[in-house]
Design brief:
- By secondary structure, the chain is an all-alpha fold.
- The relative contact order is 0.07.
């Protein structure tokens, strides 16, 4: 009964979370599209006033605002890379500044403004800023959504029942209606020749248990990979441990805590050898 109620609660929580995720992502996407349209119109007019032919002026805002979206997507795609993520972020900051400055500059060139110059500048810059923040917010939401899915999958795999494989001993167990048989150990040496004695074959469960690496072995292997990455100049962090172990960042932080307690030498600075 309790298990059924727990499953129903989990289904309700996942359904509610999916609904709010879709509603929020739809609203953020609509804001990003609105900011892009208004910024596109302003930057196109600025391009025409700057001497670009009117039939080609639409390309300039596509380059500026479009590169913001491309750089945001690139930063999201390279989020798990230890190096090389500075380039998309630098491009995002550069073209975001160009977009905001272009929208603000356009306000000073319009002669039919009935409000203060600074008010018109702020109003013109808001669509570009909204587009930038909405694009980055979508990346943050997608990252949180991915982490939540990984945690849910790990929790489901940990709580799933373990089915033990069938063993030869279980298959050889006599039926209830069959007459009792003498166990193999009861056969004397005189009744069974030495050539017929066959050593007992280990069960499948025992073989699987021996072949599975222990937790200490896995932690030692992970520590060796972290030590190698550290010697290559990478900083020991939860993200690094998650990438090396192939797990989520939350699990990587938990593994990092285990490494701190079991392998403290990974977190100590190497002593300089004096000449």
């Amino acid at each position: 009964m309790q298990q059924t109620q727990r499953k129903a609660s989990d289904v309700h929580r996942r359904t509610t979370g999916t609904f709010f995720w879709r509603a929020t992502s739809t609203g953020v996407t609509a804001i990003a599209v609105g900011g892009f349209v208004l910024s596109f119109s302003t930057l196109r007019d600025l391009a025409i006033r700057s001497g670009i032919p009117p039939e080609l002026a639409f390309i300039w805002p596509l380059i500026v605002d479009g590169f913001i979206l491309v750089a945001t997507a690139a930063a999201w795609a390279l989020r798990n890379q230890a190096r090389g993520t500075w380039y998309p972020w630098a491009a995002l900051v550069l073209f975001s500044g160009i977009s905001v400055a272009g929208n603000a500059l356009h306000a000073s060139m319009v002669r039919t403004v009935d409000v203060n110059y600074w008010v018109a500048t702020v109003v013109s810059a808001i669509p570009s800023v909204a587009q930038i923040l909405a694009s980055h917010l979508l990346v943050v939401m997608a990252r949180a959504r991915e982490t939540q899915r990984q945690v849910s999958q790990e929790t489901a795999s940990e709580s799933a029942p373990v089915t033990m494989p069938a063993t030869p001993e279980a298959d050889a167990r006599p039926a209830l209606d069959s007459p009792p048989r003498r166990p193999l150990e009861a056969v004397t040496t005189a009744e069974q020749p030495a050539a017929a004695r066959v050593p007992r074959t280990p069960t499948v469960a025992a073989v699987l248990k021996q072949s599975e690496p222990s937790v200490d072995d896995e932690l030692a292997q992970l520590a060796a990979r972290v030590r190698e990455a550290r010697s290559g100049g990478e900083e020991v962090s939860g993200a690094l441990v998650a990438r090396l172990a192939g797990v989520s960042e939350r699990t990587g932080r938990r593994r990092l805590t285990e490494l701190r307690s079991s392998f403290p030498d990974l977190f100590t600075e190497p002593e300089e050898v004096s000449a």
